[in-house]
Design brief:
The chain is an alpha+beta fold. The strands form 7 sheets. It has a 4-stranded antiparallel beta sheet. Strands 4-5 form a two-stranded antiparallel sheet. Strands 7-8 form a two-stranded antiparallel sheet. Strand 9 and strand 10 form a beta hairpin. It is a multi-pass membrane protein.
C-alpha cells in the first residue's frame, strides 16, 4: 500500500517525537486505538494490496476510522500498522446488534450483613483500587433508540476497551474484501492468505510501569503488579479487573481455576492426613512386619516370576507398606467443589451480565467459516432471516468420517499401550537376571525399592510418558482438522466438538497405562505349571504379595508429575524465548522508535483455542486425582502445589508474553462442566475397584474376621495364609530357572516347595491347585464392597447436590427484580 495516511494526514518526525511510545491514541490524541492491523507491503503483492484497499474501504463504509503508520516509522523499516477507532455511532449500532447489557438503574436491594470474622481474610485481600469494585447496577440489553433509558455519563468511556475491541473484531470478521465475490470476507481469511500479518487490540501500557498518558488506565500494570507475580500466590485474584481487561471468557477461566485450587487445598489436607496416618501406623501393620521379618518373610521361598531367567526368591525382598484408603471422604470433598462451583458460576453470570447469553451466542454469532463454506440458505424461524446451513447428508457424512478418525487414533493408543505391556513382559526377565545377585534381602530403603518389578515399572512408565507426549502432539493437529471439516455453526459448538474429541483421546492416552496396572496386571496370571501367556510368548505379570498398589502409585506419579512439569516448562519458557528472539533488534533502538503497537506486535499471539488447552490440562489433572486417589492420597497435594504455580504462570503469560486477546463472552466453562461431573461419577467406580482388586484390603479383612484361628481377630499369620504352596518338582521344565539363575542360598538347603500369590489347595489335597472356599469368600466380599461403597458414596453425593441449590437465593431475587424493572421502565418509556 502507498504511504497514505487516512483521517490523520501525513505524520512528521516531530509528531513521532512528541507522541509517547505508550500512546494508545491516534495522532490527534483524542481518538482511542481500538484495534491494530499490520502488514508488509511486498513488491509482488498487488493482489494483496487490492484486497487491503477494498477491505479498508468497506471498513470505512461501516463507520470505522482508520489511520496508517508508514513502514519508515517502524523499528524494522518494513511493517505498516493500520490503527482502527470505533466512534460512538458504530459502537451503539453494534452494541444493539450484539445485545450487550449496560446499566440502567442502581441496585436498590439491600446487601446482606458482613460475614463474621471477615477480618481473618485481610492478609489475602488486594487493595480496593485493584479489585475494581464496580457500582452495583441493574442492567438491560442496549437499545440504540432508547439511549436516555441507560446511565450514560461519558460516551467515550461508557463501553470499556474489552467491549470496544470485541465489537471491532465482530465487524472485521464479517467485512468483505472482494468486489467480485461477496462471500470472500473476514479478517481470518486475510490473515491466512498473508494479506495482513497480524490483528490484535492494544495493551494499555507496558507491564512493568504505568503509562505516561494520564488518560490511560494502566490496567495491565496493575494486573502484573498484584496478580501475575509469584510473590502474590497467596492473594485473591482481581477477577473484576481481569474480566474488564480480557473479557468474560478469560475471567471465567481464572475464576474456575482459582476456585478449583481453593477446593484442592481441602482435599490435599484429607490426603495428607491419610498419608501421615499410614506412616504413623506402619509399625502396627502386622502383615508388613511378617513380610519384612527374617524369620517369617525371610524364610518363605517364592516361585519364579518369569520363565528360565527368574530364580526363586524370598518374600522379604518385597518389604513394603500399603496406603490407607480414604477415597470416600475425598470424593465427597470434590462433590462439594462441583456443587459450590455451580453457585459461584451463577453469581458470576449475574454480576457479569451473562444470564441468557447462550441464546444470543447461538442465534447471532455464526462462525465466519460456517457462513463461507455453507452455500445453502434457509429461513431462521427465530430471527426470520435467511441464514446459511449445512445439509443433513453432508453433516452425517462429515460426522461419520470424524468418528472413524477418532476411533483410529484411539486404536493407535491402545496398540501403543499393548506395546509397552509387551516391553514390560520382555525386560522383566532381563532385569531379574541382572539383579539376581543384588542384596535385596536387606531391610533398607534400597533393598525395598530396587527390585525387578520396580525397575520394570519405572522404565515402562517413562517410555509410556514419552509415547503420550508424541501422540498428544500429533493428535492435537488431527483433532483441529477434523473439527474444521465438520463445519460447526458457532464458536461454542466448535469448542464443544473439539473438547469431546481431545478429552476422549487424552483420557485414553493418559489413563490407559494406569488402568492396566490397576485392573489387569496380576489378574490373569494362572499358577505354576499352568501360567497364562501374552501372544503365547511372554508370561503375564504378577503383582507383589501386597498387591499392585505401590506400582500404580509409581505409574501415577511419573505420568502426572511429568505432565505437570513439562506443561509448565512449555507454558513459561517457550513464549519467553520466542519473544526474546523476536524483539532482539528492537532492544537496540531508542525508546521513541518503539511504539505501543510495535511492542505488542512482537509478542506471541494468544490463539482462539488457548483457553481450551488450559482447561484440558486442568481437567486431565482432575482425573488423575479423582480416578486413582485410593492408590496415592498425596496426589491432591501435588496438584495443589502445581496449581498455585499454574495460576501465576498463566497470569504472567497473559500479562507479559501475549498480545491482548480479543475479548469474548462465555456464561460458563462450557462442556468441561459435564466432563468434570462425568469424571467425578466414574471415579467412585474406579476407586471402589482399586480398593477391592488392586489393594490387599479386602483379603486382609476377610482373614481377620473369618479365617483367623486365634482367640483374637488379629493379622498374625495372614501372609502365610495368603500364599499358596506348589511342589517344585511339578514345575514344567520350560518354566524352571536356567542353571545359575537361582541364588546361592537355594542350593544350601533342601527346598521342595515354593509359594505364590493365590488361594489354591496345596499339593496332596484331593482338589490340589484348585481355588479354595476362601478365594470365593474373598471374591464375594470384594463385589459386596464395591456395591455397598458405590451406593453409599452416590447417595451422599446426590444428597449433597440436592441440598446445595445451584443458584444463590440473593441472585435469584436480583434477577427477578431486574426483569421486573426492565418491563416497568420500558412501559413507561412507551
Amino acid at each position: 500500500m502507498n504511504d497514505i495516511f487516512k483521517n490523520g494526514g501525513n505524520q512528521t518526525p516531530s509528531d513521532k517525537q512528541q507522541q509517547s511510545k505508550d500512546s494508545v491514541y491516534f495522532r490527534d490524541g483524542v481518538r482511542r486505538i481500538d484495534f491494530i492491523l499490520s502488514y508488509i507491503d511486498d513488491k509482488d503483492g498487488e493482489k494483496k494490496q487490492d484486497r487491503r484497499k477494498e477491505f479498508e474501504a468497506n471498513l470505512q463504509k461501516v463507520g470505522l476510522e482508520l489511520e496508517t503508520e508508514d513502514k519508515s516509522e517502524s523499528e524494522d523499516g518494513r511493517t505498516y500498522f493500520l490503527k482502527i477507532h470505533v466512534p460512538w455511532e458504530v459502537l451503539a449500532t453494534y452494541a444493539d446488534v450484539l445485545k450487550i447489557k449496560v446499566p440502567f438503574k442502581a441496585n436498590d436491594i439491600p446487601d446482606k450483613k458482613d460475614v463474621p470474622l471477615s477480618w481473618l481474610c485481610t492478609p489475602y485481600r488486594l487493595p480496593e483500587h485493584v479489585m475494581q469494585p464496580e457500582p452495583d447496577y441493574f442492567t438491560a440489553t442496549f437499545d440504540k433508540s432508547k439511549t436516555d433509558f441507560f446511565l450514560i455519563e461519558d460516551k467515550e468511556t461508557f463501553f470499556p476497551p474489552s467491549t470496544r475491541n470485541r465489537i471491532v473484531y465482530y465487524i472485521l470478521s464479517r467485512c468483505p474484501y472482494s468486489k467480485e465475490d461477496k462471500d470472500k470476507k473476514g479478517i481470518k481469511r486475510l490473515l491466512n492468505n498473508g494479506t495482513y500479518a497480524a490483528a490484535f487490540p492494544l495493551h494499555d501500557c507496558r507491564y512493568w510501569t504505568r503509562s505516561r498518558d494520564a488518560n490511560c488506565e494502566s490496567e495491565r500494570y496493575s494486573l502484573y503488579k498484584y496478580w501475575a507475580r509469584f510473590s502474590s500466590f497467596y492473594k485473591e485474584q482481581p477477577l473484576n479487573l481481569i474480566r474488564k481487561y480480557y473479557g468474560e471468557k478469560i475471567g471465567i477461566y481464572f475464576a474456575w481455576l482459582g476456585f478449583y485450587t481453593e477446593m484442592l487445598s481441602y482435599a490435599a489436607v484429607v490426603g495428607l492426613l491419610c498419608f501421615i496416618y499410614g506412616v504413623a501406623t506402619f509399625d502396627e501393620n502386622v502383615w508388613s512386619k511378617e513380610i519384612c521379618n527374617d524369620t517369617i518373610g525371610g524364610q518363605i521361598v517364592m516361585c519364579p516370576l518369569c520363565d528360565k531367567k527368574c530364580g526363586y526368591w524370598k518374600l522379604s525382598t518385597t518389604c513394603s507398606s500399603s496406603w490407607v484408603t480414604c477415597f470416600c471422604v475425598f470424593i465427597n470433598v470434590m462433590t462439594l467443589f462441583l456443587e459450590f462451583w455451580k453457585r459461584r458460576q451463577a453469581r458470576l453470570e449475574y454480576e457479569w451480565d451473562l444470564v441468557d447469553f447462550e441464546e444470543e451466542q447461538q442465534q447471532l454469532q455464526l462462525r465466519p467459516e460456517y457462513e463461507t463454506k455453507c452455500t445453502h440458505r434457509r429461513l431462521n424461524r427465530v430471527t426470520q432471516e435467511m441464514e446459511p446451513y449445512l445439509p443433513l447428508t453432508s453433516k452425517c457424512a462429515r460426522s461419520v468420517l470424524s468418528g472413524a478418525t477418532v476411533l483410529f487414533w484411539i486404536s493407535l493408543i491402545i496398540a501403543c499401550i499393548i506395546g509397552v505391556i509387551a516391553y514390560r513382559l520382555a525386560v522383566f526377565a532381563a532385569f531379574a537376571s541382572i539383579m539376581k545377585d543384588s542384596p535385596t534381602n536387606k531391610l533398607d530403603v534400597v533393598g525395598t525399592l530396587i527390585t525387578p518389578q520396580f525397575a520394570t515399572s519405572v522404565t515402562a512408565s517413562c517410555i509410556n510418558f514419552v509415547i503420550i507426549m508424541i501422540l498428544n502432539f500429533l493428535y492435537e493437529r488431527v483433532a483441529i482438522k477434523i473439527t474444521d471439516m465438520e463445519v460447526p455453526k458457532t464458536h461454542v459448538e466448535y469448542e464443544n466438538k473439539l473438547t469431546v474429541k481431545m478429552f476422549l483421546f487424552q483420557f485414553v492416552n493418559y489413563y490407559s497405562s494406569c488402568f492396566y496396572v490397576a485392573f489387569f496386571k496380576g489378574k490373569f496370571v494362572g499358577y505354576p505349571g499352568d501360567y497364562a501367556y501374552m501372544f503365547g510368548k511372554w508370561r503375564n505379570e504378577e503383582c507383589e504379595p501386597g498387591g499392585c498398589l505401590i506400582e500404580l502409585t509409581t505409574q501415577l506419579v511419573i505420568v502426572m508429575v511429568g505432565k505437570q512439569v513439562w506443561g509448565n516448562i512449555q507454558e513459561a519458557l517457550v513464549p519467553w524465548l520466542c519473544n526474546w528472539w523476536v524483539s532482539r533488534s528492537a532492544r537496540n533502538h531508542p525508546e521513541s522508535l518503539y511504539s505501543r503497537w510495535e511492542q505488542d506486535h512482537d509478542l506471541q499471539t494468544f490463539s482462539q483455542l488457548g483457553l481450551f488447552y488450559e482447561y484440558l490440562e486442568m481437567v486431565i489433572q482432575f482425573g488423575f486425582i479423582t480416578l486413582f486417589v485410593a492408590s496415592f492420597p498425596l496426589a491432591p497435594l501435588l496438584a495443589l502445589m502445581n496449581n498455585i504455580l499454574e495460576v501465576r504462570v498463566d497470569a504472567w503469560k497473559f500479562t507479559t508474553q501475549f498480545r491482548r486477546p480479543v475479548a469474548a463472552k462465555a456464561h460458563s466453562i462450557g462442556a468441561w462442566d459435564e466432563i468434570l461431573n462425568m469424571i467425578a461419577v466414574f471415579s467412585v467406580v474406579t476407586n471402589a475397584f482399586i480398593v477391592s482388586f488392586t489393594s490387599d484390603m479386602i483379603p486382609r479383612l476377610v482373614y481377620k474376621y473369618a479365617y483367623h484361628l486365634g482367640s483374637e481377630s488379629t493379622m498374625e499369620g495372614y501372609i502365610s495364609n495368603s500364599l499358596s504352596i506348589f511342589n517344585i518338582s511339578e514345575i514344567p521344565v520350560e518354566n524352571r530357572p536356567e542353571e545359575g539363575e537361582n541364588p546361592d542360598w537355594f542350593y544350601s538347603s533342601n527346598i521342595t516347595t515354593c509359594r505364590y500369590r493365590d488361594y489354591r489347595y496345596p499339593p496332596g489335597h484331593e482338589k490340589q491347585y484348585t481355588h479354595t472356599m476362601q478365594f470365593w469368600h474373598i471374591l464375594a466380599a470384594k463385589l459386596a464392597f464395591i456395591i455397598i461403597m458405590e451406593h453409599v458414596v452416590f447417595v451422599v453425593k446426590f444428597f449433597v447436590a440436592w441440598l446445595i441449590p445451584d443458584v444463590p437465593s440473593d441472585v435469584k431475587a436480583r434477577t427477578k427484580r431486574e426483569h421486573y424493572l426492565i418491563q416497568e421502565l420500558l412501559i413507561d418509556l412507551c
